[in-house]
Every structure is written in C-alpha cells, then in structure tokens.
C-alpha cells in the first residue's frame, strides 16, 4: 500500500513538472566584460579597430554591457540589448520589421550577431549621434579609454 501511494503521488506531480519545464524557456543573457566585448566585436563581428574604443564606451553607457537590457523611453518606445536598439525605427516588437528587419526581442539575448549587424547599419545611417550615451560620455576622444591598449588588442 505505501508503494501504491508513492506511485499516486508521483503521478500527481507529473503535470506540475511538465508545466515547470514548459515555462522554463528563458532568454539567455550575458553581462560582458569590457575587453571580452571588444575582442568579440573586432574578431567575430568585424568592427573597425579605429572606433572600437568609442563603441565600447557607448555600450557601457547605453546598456552597462548587459545583453538583456530593455529600456522604456519617455516617448513610449523601448530600446533593446547591448546597443539599445529602438523599436521606433530599427525593429518591431513581436515581429520582424524596421530598418534592420528584426524582432526587437532578438536584440535582448546573448547572441549579439544580429545586434552587431543592426548597430553597424544604424552607425552607417546616423553615426554615433543615434546613441545618447555616446553624446553624453564618449564624443570627446580625450575622455574615452583606449580599449586597444587597455585590453592589449
């Protein structure tokens, strides 16, 4: 009889276990270190070495190097991921769209391939002026840490 009660107890737990497993789909995020991100942007994503210190400075001030960061803006829009790509022009919430033809949620995970490609497009179209973090903290070369030297790149 105790074995039968044990089996019944386990059978009652199976639906709960299934629900927990189904609900465990999480967005993977990564909190980068400065040099780690600089290496990734240079090597895997082919960013221009001349501007890497500015990119890192800007990302540090936009997202604190957090791939999962989502920021609600005063105008009601939202910005996503490392590069804080905004849903007003460059992506759409819930479906592909904008100039980068991506779902904004794709920018809030640990795969920064699409983020990097979109950030390059934004830079090509608007320069660093697109990012408020750049304007406030990184536009003066004298105040930007030299990542190439600091990270021995």
What distinguishing features does this structure have?
mainly alpha, 44% helix, 6 helices, 153 residues, globular, 3 strands
Compact overview of the structure:
By secondary structure, the protein is mainly alpha-helical.
Describe the structure.
It contains 6 helices and 3 strands; from the N terminus they run αααβββααα. It has 153 residues and is mainly alpha-helical. The protein has a 3-stranded antiparallel β-sheet with strand order 1-2-3. Helix 2 packs across helix 3 (52-63) and helix 3 (52-63) packs across helix 5 (132-138). The chain is globular and about 40 Å long. The chain starts with a helix and ends with a helix.
Number of strand segments: 3
Radius of gyration: 21 Å
Distance between the termini: 69 Å
As residue ranges, the low-confidence spans are 16-26
The largest sheet has its strands arranged as 1-2-3
Mean pLDDT: 88
Helix content: 40-55%
The shape is: globular
Q: What can be said about the biggest beta sheet?
A: 3 strands, antiparallel
Order of helices and strands: HHHEEEHHH
- What is the beta-strand fraction? 5-15%
Write the layout of secondary structure elements.
Elements: H1 2-22, H2 34-43, H3 52-63, E1 70-72, E2 78-80, E3 85-86, H4 113-126, H5 132-138, H6 147-150
Antiparallel strand pairs: 1-2, 2-3
Helix pairs in contact: 2-3, 3-5
């Amino acid at each position: 009889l105790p074995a039968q009660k044990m089996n019944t107890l386990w059978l009652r737990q199976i639906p709960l276990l299934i629900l927990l497993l189904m609900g465990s789909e999480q967005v993977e995020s990564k909190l980068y270190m400065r040099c780690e991100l600089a290496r990734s942007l240079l090597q895997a994503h082919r960013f221009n070495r001349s501007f890497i210190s500015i990119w890192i400075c800007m990302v540090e001030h936009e997202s604190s190097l957090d791939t999962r960061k989502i920021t609600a803006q005063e105008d009601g829009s939202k910005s996503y991921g490392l590069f804080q790509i905004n849903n007003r022009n460059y992506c759409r919430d819930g479906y592909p769209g904008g100039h980068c033809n991506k779902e904004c949620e794709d920018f809030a995970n640990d795969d920064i391939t699409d983020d990097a490609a979109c950030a390059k497009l934004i830079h090509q179209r608007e320069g660093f002026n697109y990012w408020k973090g750049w304007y406030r903290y990184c536009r003066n070369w004298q105040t930007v840490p030299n990542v190439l030297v600091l990270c021995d790149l």
